[in-house]
Amino acid sequence: MKQKKNLLTIIIPCFNEEEVLPETVKELGNILENLISLGKIASDSKLLFVNDGSKDKTWQLIQNYTEKYEYVTGIKFTRNYGHQNALLAGMTVAVKHADMLITIDADLQDDVNAIPKMVDAYLKGNDVVYGVRNSRETDTAFKRRTALAYYALMRKMGVNLVPDSADYRLLSKRATEALLQYKERNLFLRGMVPLVGFKSTKVYYPRKERFAGKSKYPLSKMLHFALDGITSFSIAPIHLILGMGIVIVFISIFLMLYTIYQKFAGHVVSGWSSLMVSIWLLGGIQLISLSVIGEYVGKVFTEVKRRPRYNIEEETFTTKFNNKSK
Predict the structure, then answer these.
(1) Predicted model pTM
(2) Contact yes or no for 216/83 (Cβ under 8 A)
């Protein structure tokens, strides 16, 4: 089938989103239809929902909307593979037909009204368009501070991230194909997308409260995701351990000289407190060092096994395009 110019696919990962899905389909559907009516995107542009092992009625709703609307399609995973893999699966399936792809979460916190601006930026020649929050007013003070600290830390480690930009972005066909050439299993798309190069720009939007349901990223998952980002893109923690080891060696030499001096001065009574502090301090540093090194070894272990990132049980996106080409 000959591809139509400016065919857009909006990819929406879903995990237990039955409460918000009706509104998501409604709002994104309206955006899609408006862009089609203005002639900015092809008439067979699609919404692609990726069901990431939901336990509720998410997939049932996706199937219902697939039958009701020509522009709604879906992918069903065999189990939960995670948000990043859901995005990657959607891009892998959609890039065969789409000229541009937009990824957005189902919770409607990212303003869908930024999508026309992204499309306009693409039509002006940009291959990558980042959706960037213009404020963090909906976040708690703790989350704002930790986010700023995280971006500052990543910059110091040499990781090129777009501040206040998550996984709400537009990619052209060639930018997506370039991104899919990165074969690592430890996915951190926020760091991977800037690596593909190509002309890029930003679209700013206000972030809203979640429309319905519960956040799928509690503090524990956010911390794990942040750690993944650091260890997937930088070996700075290994360098930090080396630096810490060198500092400790110099401190040990100083303490050794101090001990020799104390011995010759006749002060031979050992200090129990200082001994305990030294043991606990060095023990803690060793455990932290082993944990950091273990994190990198674990990532190598995951990569060398080369297991599939995901398994698809059902998929209607390709089916709809194949049916049209007959």
Answers:
(1) 0.71
(2) yes
